[in-house]
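Design request, tokens follow.
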């Protein structure tokens, strides 16, 4: 099944096992590499990192192949060998950002108490925290253009699969009955994504930090109450 992000990974992530931390958002720096020398294979990654940096600052509209090429200090033809057009570059950026979002969710699950409901709540909290901390990246991840290939984000770092794994944990712990399992993860994602979007681009954008956390707590409480 293809989820609303455009990806269709195969299986949920097990929220009950130790997961090696992967690189979280915030460590990509825009660097003018005009004088850098590239060895075989690293230009594609350099172009991607510049594009992610542009997305962080300006959202999806800032991801322009010509600007990325200039930042990297390479010719148009060199850049086009790796990304044929803006859609291809944007797709790569979206996949990278989805992986960063997944990494943030995994880190939150690792730090949560070893209880199924706590791990489930941690995914929602991390999702909203990422959106607020990285609005440009979050908007880019869910922009309508440039859909990545289905396998572009590894299943163990795909946000939806991490959520699914934690919902499976709720069922295993007896907190969610199996006959109510179908559709629960999509409903939870819709609720949390909606809140994140309202905080970024809607009337809840005026909420301060404390108010935003109160709203997030109430939302996660409501989802948890829906288990019963």
């Amino acid at each position: 099944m293809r989820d609303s992000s455009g990806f269709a990974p195969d299986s949920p992530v097990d929220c009950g096992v130790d997961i090696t931390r992967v690189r979280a958002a915030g460590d990509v720096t825009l660097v003018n590499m005009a004088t850098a020398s590239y060895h075989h294979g690293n230009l594609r990654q350099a172009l991607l990192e510049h594009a992610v940096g542009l997305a962080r600052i300006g959202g999806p509209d800032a991801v322009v192949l010509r600007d990325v090429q200039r930042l990297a200090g390479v010719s148009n033809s060199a850049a086009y060998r790796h990304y044929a057009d803006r859609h291809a570059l944007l797709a790569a950026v979206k996949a990278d950002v989805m992986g960063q979002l997944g990494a943030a969710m995994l880190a939150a699950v690792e730090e949560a108490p070893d209880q199924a409901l706590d791990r489930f709540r941690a995914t929602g909290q991390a999702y909203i925290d990422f959106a607020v901390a990285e609005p440009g990246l979050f908007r880019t991840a869910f922009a309508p253009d440039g859909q990545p290939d289905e396998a572009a984000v590894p299943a163990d770092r795909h946000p939806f699969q991490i959520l699914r794994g934690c919902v499976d944990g709720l069922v295993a712990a007896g907190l969610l009955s199996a006959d109510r399992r179908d559709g629960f993860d999509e409903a939870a994602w819709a609720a949390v994504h909606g809140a994140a979007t309202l905080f970024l681009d809607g009337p809840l954008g005026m909420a301060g930090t404390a108010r935003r956390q109160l709203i997030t707590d109430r939302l996660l409480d409501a989802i948890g109450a829906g288990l019963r």
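Comment from the thread starter after seeing the answer: thanks! The two ends are 27 Å apart (CA to CA).
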